[in-house]
């Protein structure tokens, strides 16, 4: 028997995983599989059963989701009109994650249903809100119902008709397939206090389809003993970790007095490192809620940091969560709003709630999102825009296809209202304050700005050996706004001038493949390992190649700590700080690349005793 499983996981060791496959009837292990799984996995099973199989994961990994046509989904319904294959999700010990069971279809030869639960909320009062979509590979989807059955005896206690909705986003997701779609949503009160199983059923020309969604467990004593029952599976299975059970997610918030809310993102980088350090400091004195948006699954990640534990929840209906759950809120910190959908609505909500509840609002300026939705202030030609007039800004937003707005005036008007409400606007450099003043020209906003540079990790000074090679060092992640094209021009200049004793070493990573004998990439680094890394590659001079104004630049801090010469363009916090550094040299952004190379070589030779 051939099983096709559409599965992609984001694992610690790439896509490597190990599974044991069990017969669902008698829990008998059939085989063990391992390897790099990406896309459809073909598995041969000689044992035959009418009841199906389930997998148990062996390896340790992070969050995994089903991937369909390049889009990630969570809370998945993914099954055929015959059997279902279960993926049981492992939970990290240090977090209380209440999601999900993932289902994938076994038999692709016949009619297939794919769907997703986009939103699933249960209030303490027992009201349930659910939103999602279903698609059928052959027939039109009609008459969708939510069915509730008791877990104890499978008695049908409630059946709720669902409102069908058009879902153009889903249609676009599967535009290359012949699926027929229907969105749905419903809101109802659960009339019993028993533990329930929720199914979604619908009618197609081939009959009624019934699909398991979630177990709703009211009794916490049942969390590790509840049995799973799927509509077409005769026997139940008892798992050690019933991680697919959805308890009332917000009970924990009711137990704690959460007064501080943080808006942040999960995109990595200095902003995320900074706020995590802040959270670790703040949670010693108070309990905190951190909010971020997960674009892959169209939902918000809510982290509750208590004195002892961290709880993680997910929701889509953000306004309800803010209104009903964060009742004790008195302080908001905006660390990042990059990646949030409809930033105007978020800013409007912050504006309204700060007035209604007299909540203190504060912001950390990690980038220039409050100035322009393009964040790094590069125009459509990937050049620093130098903040032109509003007409040119609007043209740029239209040309680059900004998802946020086509009007820079409207964008800054919304941000200005929030900045005026702020008690503190924390800038990490004088140049950041200068740029904000240049844009907003508001004394009230200026008076709230605080200059507070990041703390710097102390590093030992390096000792570089003199050899026949001059090494120009780059630090961090090399992207377009970090000067990728400047580095490519520099490599061409080295080659054109036959500088065979000159190389560029990137201590970090680069998404763009650079095939050049004079260019080397070491990969991501640990800050404490930097001195030994620099000595290993005999770096003589650093080039801070960023072509947009930074708000601080951790990499400049690390370069300065190492004690080597630094060449930087004269803009942003990087130009400000390198200009004050006794081994620093700032140059205009328009400097010809041949002159940039000459300056780098001169500084390297001057510093390390090289002579022609």
Strand order of the biggest β-sheet:
10-26-25-24-23-27-28-29-30
Q: What is the number of independent domains?
A: 3
Taking the sheet with the most strands, its summary is: 9 strands, mixed
* Principal-axis shape: elongated
Specify the CATH homologous superfamily of the largest domain. Answer: Immunoglobulins
Instruction: Write down how many β-strands occur, each being a DSSP E stretch of 2 or more residues.
Output: 36
Q: Approximately how much helix is present in the residues?
A: 10-25%
CATH fold assignment of the largest domain: Immunoglobulin-like
As a percent range, the share of strand residues is 25-35%
Task: Tell me the name of the CATH class of the largest domain.
Answer: Mainly Beta
Individual helix count = 14
Distance between the termini: 72 Å
* Unreliably modeled segments: 1-17, 36-45, 49-109, 219-248
Index terms:
612 residues; Immunoglobulin-like; Rossmann fold; 3 domains; nine-stranded mixed beta sheet; 14 helices; elongated
Protein architecture, described:
This protein has 612 residues and is α/β, with parallel strands linked by helices. The protein has 3 domains: 2-246, Sandwich (Immunoglobulin-like), CATH 2.60.40.10; 257-451, Rossmann fold (3-Layer(aba) Sandwich), CATH 3.40.50; 470-608, Rossmann fold. Helix content is 23%, strand content 34%. It is built from 14 helices and 36 strands. A 9-stranded mixed β-sheet has the order 10-26-25-24-23-27-28-29-30. The protein has a 6-stranded parallel β-sheet with strand order 33-32-31-34-35-36, with helices on both faces. A 5-stranded mixed β-sheet has the order 3-2-5-9-11, with no helix packed on it. Helix 5 (343-356) links the parallel strand 27 and strand 28 (360-364). Helix 5 packs parallel to helix 7 and helix 10 packs across helix 14. The longest helix is centred in the last third of the chain and has 16 residues, at 593-608. It is elongated, with a radius of gyration of 28 Å. 35% of the residues are buried. Residues 1-17, 36-45, 49-109 and 219-248 have low confidence and may be disordered.
